[in-house]
Amino acid sequence: EAGVAQSPRYKIIEKRQSVAFWCNPISGHATLYWYQQILGQGPKLLIQFQNNGVVDDSQLPKDRFSAERLKGVDSTLKIQPAKLEDSAVYLCASSLDGQVWEQYFGPGTRLTVT
Amino acid sequence: GENVEQHPSTLSVQEGDSAVIKCTYSDSASNYFPWYKQELGKGPQLIIDIRSNVGEKKDQRIAVTLNKTAKHFSLHITETQPEDSAVYFCAASMDFGNEKLTFGTGTRLTIIP
Q1: Chain-centre distance of CA A82, in angstroms?
Q2: Residues of A in contact with B34 (CB under 8 A)
Q3: In sequence order, what DSSP letters do the residues of B28-81 get, joined into one string?
Q4: How close does chain B come to A99, measured CA to CA in Å?
Q5: Which residue in chain B has the smallest CA separation from A41?
Q6: Rounded Cα–Cα distance for residues B108 and B38 (Å)
Q7: A44 at the B interface (CB within 8 A)?
Q8: pLDDT of amino acid A97
Q9: Residue A1: predicted pLDDT
Q10: What is the pLDDT of residues A71-97, one digit of tens each?
C-alpha cells in the first residue's frame, strides 16, 4: 500500500513570497490533516478535512495560510505572504475516516524562509 | 485545550540499556495516548498506544504505562539498539472520531554503541 505522498520535499523562499505544498493521501482515506512542525517542537494541527469539507481549521493563520481539497483526494496548502516564523516542516497525514489512532504521516516538506 | 509536556528533551543511553520518556497531560477528558517515532527526514510513525481503560501495554521491547490519576504516561524501551535512535513524541487525544492529537515537544534518543 502506497503511503502519503508530499511534494516538494524542500523549499527555500524569501519572506513575503508565496509557496504551495501538495499532498496525496493514502487511497481511500477520507480524512486529511496538515500539521506544522517547528524545529524542536511537536506537530501542530493546522487544518483537518473530511472529504472536501473542513472539520477543524481553528489553528490555521487564515490571514496568510489557505488550504483546499477540492475533489476530496489531493490537497494543497498555501502560504502568502511567507514570514520568517513560517520556517518549519509541513506534514500531511491521512486516516480512513477521522480515527486519531490510524493517522499515517507523509515525509513532510521542509520550508526555509530567508 | 489540552497541553502535553514531555521530558527529557534529549536522552543518551548505552546500547542494551533501557530508556524511559515521560509525558504529562492537562485535560482529564483525554483517553487516548499514542507514541510516535520520527526518524530523520521522515514523518512520525505510530509505535504504540494506550487507552485509559488499561494501565500498561507491551509490544516486544516497547511498553507504555498510564497513570490517569496523576495524568502522566511513559514510554519504556528495553534492550535498546542503534536503530532505536530517533525523536519520540507522545500525544494525547480523545478517541472519538475527528478528535485532535496534541503532541509533546519530543525527545531525541541517541543509542551509544
Answers
A1: 15
A2: 100-101
A3: TT--EEEEEEE-TTS--EEEEEEETT-SEEEETTEEEEEETTTTEEEEEE-S--
A4: 5
A5: B105
A6: 9
A7: yes
A8: 87
A9: 63
A10: 889 999 999 999 999 999 999 999 998
Q: How many CB atoms lie within 10 A of CB B62?
A: 16
How close does chain B come to A43, measured CA to CA in Å? 6
Across the interface, whether the CB atoms of A55 and B98 are under 8 A apart is answered yes
Contact A42 B98 (CB under 8 A): no
Torsion angle of alpha carbons A93, A96, A102, A108, nearest 10°? -10
Sheet holding A65-68, edge to edge: A5-7, A19-24, A75-79, A65-68
**Contact across the interface for B34 and A43, Cβ inside 8 Å:** no
Of A50, A97, A105, Cβ closest to residue B43: A105
**If you count them, how many residues does chain B have?**
113
Assess whether pLDDT exceeds 90 at residue A2.
no
C-alpha cell at A69: 481539497
**Within 13 Å and on the Cβ side, how many CA atoms surround B4?**
28
d(CA A26, CA A107): 13
H or E stretch including B32? strand B32-38
